[in-house]
């Protein structure tokens, strides 16, 4: 069965009332639990003397984690929809690699070492990656007789771009040891030490991405049924992919710029939800935001306690937990 079958079966598009009720109750409760755990659990125990300072620091970290997790998860769900590829996410489509490459270039050539500098270069890198992957996919698809982007060509173009960008970034880092020392603290992906003010520079991007995707669910449902069906219903698939893809890139770019590349959340969150609420993107997109935020908070909290008094960064924790989750996704695809 082709990969697109997960998102194109007619009987799976409309979520049942019971699924909607279950999702509406379970997902907010899950996020609430994750918030409480994030505030109360850490490498340092809460005591009356430092209670206020710890809760303040963890409060900022929790808010940042919620926004980053929601952004990455919604971005991944949207990318799976526009490519009709259930393995798509910002990492696979080259967005993270593009952001990382420009951050490395900024560190090596311009000496940036501040969060604001990382944000600026990461945003530019993510945008350039989206343009490059789209151009590569279009060229590849037309070279094989197609008329434009296809799900397979987008995924392959993303993988090719990721390989190339990673190789160039590695070459730059090997040539400059100081750049490697600076870059490695951003590259692992972390919400530790982030404050609410760090989100401010990317709030316009996040607001744009959230806004577009929250109203794009019905059109993504149509797009998931195939370009010919979408055209028959009066939609323009290429335009839809451009608009929805742009919103997904905005969310991914904003998240990567602030917290570094956090893998697997955008891939796994939609797959965790489909058995619970169905595959309609009208519901899947906002639900993914809840699950993504919860996953990042829980992974970040777990990273604080697995190796006290130190911490394991959230990007490492999501990678460790994401590997078996990826195997589960592949096994589930094969069984459908």
TrEMBL record:
Assigned keywords, A-Z: Cell membrane, Membrane, Transmembrane, Transmembrane helix, Transport
Lineage: superkingdom: Bacteria
Alphabetical list of Gene3D superfamilies matching this protein: ABC transporter involved in vitamin B12 uptake, BtuC
Membrane topology of the entry: Multi-pass membrane protein
Residue intervals passing through the bilayer: 20-42, 62-79, 91-112, 118-140, 152-175, 199-220, 240-269, 281-302, 314-331
Statement: the UniProt record of this protein carries the keyword Membrane: yes
Cited SUPFAM superfamilies: ABC transporter involved in vitamin B12 uptake, BtuC
UniProt-annotated location(s): Cell membrane
InterPro entries: ABC_BtuC-like (IPR037294), ABC_transptr_permease_BtuC (IPR000522)
Protein family membership: Belongs to the binding-protein-dependent transport system permease family. FecCD subfamily.
PANTHER family: FE(3+) DICITRATE TRANSPORT SYSTEM PERMEASE PROTEIN FECC-RELATED, FERRIC ENTEROBACTIN TRANSPORT SYSTEM PERMEASE PROTEIN
Stated name of the protein: Iron ABC transporter permease
Organism annotation: Dermacoccus abyssi
């Amino acid at each position: 069965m082709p990969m697109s079958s997960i998102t194109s079966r007619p009987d799976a598009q409309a979520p049942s009332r019971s699924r909607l009720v279950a999702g509406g109750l379970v997902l907010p409760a899950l996020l609430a639990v994750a918030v409480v755990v994030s505030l109360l659990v850490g490498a340092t125990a809460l005591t009356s003397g430092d209670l206020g300072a710890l809760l303040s620091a963890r409060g900022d970290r929790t808010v940042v984690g919620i926004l980053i997790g929601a952004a990455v998860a919604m971005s991944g769900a949207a990318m799976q929809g526009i490519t009709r590829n259930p393995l798509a996410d910002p990492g696979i489509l080259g967005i993270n690699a593009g952001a990382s490459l420009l951050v490395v270039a900024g560190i090596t050539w311009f000496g940036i070492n501040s969060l604001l500098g990382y944000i600026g270069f990461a945003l530019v890198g993510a945008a350039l990656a989206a343009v490059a992957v789209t151009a590569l996919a279009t060229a590849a698809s037309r070279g094989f007789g197609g008329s434009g982007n296809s799900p397979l060509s987008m995924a392959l173009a993303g993988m090719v771009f990721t390989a190339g960008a990673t190789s160039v970034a590695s070459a730059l880092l090997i040539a400059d040891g100081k750049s490697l020392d600076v870059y490695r603290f951003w590259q692992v992906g972390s919400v530790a030490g982030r404050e609410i003010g760090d989100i401010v520079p990317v709030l316009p991007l996040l607001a744009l991405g959230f806004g577009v995707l929250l109203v794009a669910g019905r059109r993504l449902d149509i797009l998931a049924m195939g370009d010919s069906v979408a055209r028959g219903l009066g939609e323009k698939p290429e335009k839809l992919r451009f608009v929805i893809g742009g919103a997904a890139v905005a969310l991914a770019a904003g998240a990567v710029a602030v917290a570094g590349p956090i893998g697997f959340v955008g891939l796994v969150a939609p797959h965790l939800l489909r058995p619970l609420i169905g595959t309609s993107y009208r519901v899947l997109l906002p639900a993914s935001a809840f699950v993504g935020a919860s996953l990042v908070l829980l992974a970040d909290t777990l990273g604080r306690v697995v190796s006290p008094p130190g911490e394991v960064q959230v990007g490492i924790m999501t990678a460790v937990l994401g590997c078996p989750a990826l195997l589960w996704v592949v096994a589930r695809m094969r069984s459908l």
